[in-house]
Every structure is written in structure tokens, then in C-alpha cells.
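Example with several molecule types.
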Amino acid sequence: MKQEQVPQDQENLNEGKLAKLYYATDDQGNYIKVNSIGWEPETVAMQQAWDVVNDEVEIARKKVIEGKASPLLYWIKKNIMTISMVAAYASTFGFLVRLHCKPSFFNRLSRKQLEKYAYTFRISVEELTDIERLKKNDR
Amino acid sequence: MTVNFDHKQSAHCESGVVSNLLRFHGMEFDEPMVFGIGSGLFFTYLPFVRVNGIPGVAYRIWPGQIFKRFSDRIGIKIERKKFSNPGKAMDELDRMLDKGQPVGMLTSVFFLDYLPAAYRFHFNAHNIIVFGKENGRYLVSDPVMEQTTDISYEDLARARFAKGMPEPSGRMYYPLLVPGDFSVEKALWTGIKQTSDHMTRIPMPLVGTKGMKYLAGRMRKWPERIGDRKAILWLGNLIRMQEEIGTGGAGFRFIYAAFLDQAGQKLNNEKLIDLSKQLTKNGDKLRDFAYYAGRVCKNRKSDTKTFAELGDILEECAQQEQAIFSELYEVSRSK
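Resulting C-alpha cells for the full complex:
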């Protein structure tokens, strides 16, 4: 890649915080370092990955509102976590986390258990159990 | 407590951290040099390792290896530590900072709030350097950032003790002893030999240029085997592994070509410079691949280029790399 070919696509997901470093060649064919603010194919691929995440969050949110799942499921998806990761953070077992994604089990959790999950997602217990807020949150 | 720390931006986090740490200890190694001597370039397709159901693909050697190989070859002694809990890990960090010792560490990008939100997935093997503490916030030299930045105690502790695969467990490291004299020439050739050997001579179908060829073959059948939607997701993952942050473009091929360029000049070896130019051309082809693959992902239909055509481009890359690295192996074998 020649130095003038290093892409500078305005449409990117870097929020102006980041201009990545690329290695490109100068007129003599020797390598120099050039910053790039973004490249479309990469942005497309990254956006696609986030679309998948956001879809799953939305599905989880609807399930919670319909009473088919507990808010725990929503927060797991929201934090892009897996069951085993949540189990590791909350120092519990995977199958328990899976059970707690069901409302009937979730509603019987002790304050201490809820605090563990709240710690995992870095929110308060009130935020964790607040279903009303999820209803308003129409994307 | 702060020290004077000279931060330089780099493309890849691991080689960038090594380069920045060594500069502090008075050794100047540019990032491509670290990447090349540490034999960072590789290719593997790992269809049986699935992340969210998407097969893994890597354009580089696994995390930690570059640093290990590089320090072995130059003769740097590294102190490595891991911890059982965040309190101990952060206390030890504070002690090292009080001594004026910048510390490299493994973190999860999910908790590094100075990065753009779009990059913050649970990737647990990101390397950064912490070189000081001011007003309760840690000063961070993140090699992918243009400038140094800072982070709170809480975020840093979380990032160092993220869960999932792999767990950083508060791992930190710093050079104990840098050698007075060493042979760069020997290290350069050892690094080149290992990379070219691994790219072309491992008798397994999923690694090196064979892996790339295998992936090209499999890719042609993705749409009929798993459906358009999934095939496009898998293709998107391929682009991300190749082009996302830390690759320097074209799945590390440009960094490695830069290394060959620098090594050729240092060793006065025309052959290496010539091979660098060939690898640059191949990198350009990989960029084309990502460009067309991006078009397919954007339209969500495979009408711009078919998966078969994309597979053809990738196979061509595999053939060229086979030729380049075979030649590189012949050149480096006798050294």
C-alpha cells in the first residue's frame, strides 16, 4: 500500500478518538508510518458485529417485557457476556445463571445474590431489577 | 509519581508495548523489528474453535509469543507476575510505579473507556503500559493510541481481572535486565527462519499458507452450506481479524514487509528488500480481498462478488505467500 492509498474514510466508528497506524510505502518503496482515520470495509464489518449484538439485546428486552425472561438475560446481552463469564464474575455456576434468567427463579433471589449480579454489570440492584425502565427504552 | 515516558504509537499492541518499554530502558527497537524478531506473522484457520458460532481465524501467532521469542533472542530478562486478587495486583503495581518502573500488563479492552465504544468487545489479551499515577488516576501508554491517556483505579482493576477466555489474572511484566551486547544479526535471521518455516513447512492443513488455501476452498461453499446470512457474518469476522485494530493493515503483512525492509537495510541484503516488495504486493491483494468482502457484507447479498471469486483471490494470496516464504526460508536457512 502506497502512502497516498492509506484510506481516510470520514464515515467511521472511531468517534474522533483514534487514528490508527498503518505501514505504507513512500515513493522509493521504503516503509513509513501513516495514520488513518478509518476504512469502509472495516467499519462495515465492525458495524455488522454490533448489529448482531444489538439485535440480541432487543430480543432479550422484548422477552423480559413479555415476562418470558428475567432482567438478568437483558443485562447479560447488554454487556455482550456469555453465561460462563457471568458465572465467573458472580462466583456462581453456569446452570444457576441459566435458571436465574427465568423470572420465577430470579424473583426469589436474595439481596446478596442480586448484589453479585449487579456487581458483574457495574449497576445497582435497583437498576438490575427495574423492568419499567426497559419498557420505556424503545431503542 | 511519574516518570518521563516516551510514548510512540504502533499498529500492534504487543510489539508496541515491547518497543516502548525497551526505549525506556535505553534500547531502540522499532515496532516492525520487534514483530519480525519475535516471529509474529502466521496464519491459522481454526474451524473447531468457535466464538459465538463463528470459526476462528488468526493472521498472527498467539498472544504473548512475540514478546517471549523476542526477549529470548535478544537476551532480555523479563520479570512476570500474576495475582490471585485485584487488591494485591494493584498494590504491587503501585510499588513498581513508586520505584519509577513502567509496567506492561494484560487487560480486557471492554473496560478501557478511553477507546471508542465500537472497539470495546471482550477481548482479554490487550497489552498496555502503566507508567505513573496522578491524582488517583493511572497514566497509560496504550500503543494503539496516538497520545498517552489515563484510567481510573476501578476500571484498571476490572480490566486486569476480566473473566472469560483468556483470563489476564492481573498479569504484569517488566524488563529486569537488558543485555549490554547482543547480536542483532543472529536474532534477525532466527526470527525470519522461524516465520518462514512455520508458514510453509508445518505438515498440517490448517496452519501457514496451507491453512489459507484450505480456508479459500471452504469459503467457496459457505453460502450453500450455512446460508447467506451466516456466510456473511463469517466473512465479516474474517475482515475484522484481518483489518481491525492492531494489524497495521492486511493482517500484519504490511508490518512484516516493513520488517523485511528494515532488516534488509540493516544486513545489506538486497534479497530481503526484494521479498519485502513482493510481500507488499501480496498485502495489497489481501486489502483488495477485504474491500470486496466488505462490499458483499454491506449489500447483504453476494451479487458484487461471489464467495467463489473471493475464494479465488484468497487462494492466489496463499500461492504467492507460499512462494515468498519458501524463498525466505532458503535465504535464511544457511544463516
